[in-house]
Specification:
mainly alpha; globular; 281 residues
Length: 281
């Protein structure tokens, strides 16, 4: 990994491909530790409020562990947890703040997209006539979906590392961590969108098998039947397994992005130890 992150005291900016490959290598190098933490986090989701806070905090914990490996200052789980646990509710605040913001933005974009699509439909309907309803409807759907997708990915890219500063930096609260993400990402949105797209493609096969396929079967089944209940249970279990497998990859990706963003904006502000002569232990 040392060829990607430079030598002692220096961090080299990463390309989109290097960010994703670095996250994959982190994930593979610490598979057991990260999967154990992800499994615990998903079990906590079953407990309202406090469990959700634990889930958010463990997500930050994985990013902190990954970040420590990247700067050649690794920590054990217990040591890292001593930094994370006192900030439990701050992690929940970050999750809610970003989640609610994205939900409101989605609603706003859906309204804007619907208005734009409606105007396109009226204009094209007047030009092409009622015989082109299918073409007009399809185009309106594509325009609406495009506006929503581009808008959401833009805002998500601004908040993608929202919990990482809280996990890594000292003397920072949840609101400041979200603001820190917004500041760090302001000159790199399109590159981050590229990273998100590539990462999504990397995880798509797993998501498709564990999440999408069971849901496709559910569409064809009648609710309330025994077979529907069985397939639904399989779908829930598959979603949980998929979440456990994918969560460490995305949290590692956020750690790499955070490091890269800081190196681009702050230069040598990060102090590194002498890197090891080979990849992660």
């Amino acid at each position: 990994m040392s060829e990607n992150f430079g030598s002692s005291g220096q961090i080299q900016p990463l390309s989109i491909g290097n960010v994703v490959s670095a996250a994959v290598r982190l994930y593979r190098s610490h598979l057991k530790t990260y999967l154990n933490l992800a499994a615990i986090a998903h079990l906590w989701v079953l407990v309202p409020v406090y469990g959700w806070a634990k889930y958010a905090a463990i997500s930050g914990l994985i990013s902190r562990l990954a970040f420590g490996e990247l700067i050649y200052q690794p920590e054990g789980v217990q040591t890292a947890s001593s930094h994370i646990n006192p900030r439990l509710w701050s992690f929940l605040r970050v999750a809610f703040q970003v989640g609610i913001s994205l939900a409101l933005i989605y609603l706003g974009l859906a309204i804007v997209g619907g208005v734009v699509a409606g105007l396109i439909g009226v204009v094209l309907g007047g030009i092409l006539g009622s015989s082109s309803v299918i073409v007009i409807t399809t185009l309106a759907i594509i325009v609406t979906a495009g506006i929503i997708l581009l808008g959401l990915t833009w805002f998500y890219s601004r908040w993608i590392v929202a919990e990482v500063p809280l996990a890594v930096e000292e003397n920072i609260n949840g609101g400041e961590s979200v603001a820190r993400s917004w500041e760090l990402t302001k000159a790199s949105v399109f590159r981050i969108q590229g990273v998100v797209l590539v990462a999504f493609i990397v995880t798509l096969p797993l998501v498709f098998v564990l999440n999408y396929i069971p849901n496709l079967f559910l569409i064809r089944l009648e609710p309330g039947t025994a077979i529907y209940s069985i397939v639904y249970l399989i779908s829930v279990i598959g979603s949980l397994i998929g979440g456990v497998l994918i969560m460490p990859f995305w949290q590692s990706l956020k750690a790499v992005l955070y490091l890269d963003l800081r190196s681009r904006r702050e230069g040598l502000g990060l102090q590194l130890r002498e890197p090891p002569s080979q990849d992660f232990r």
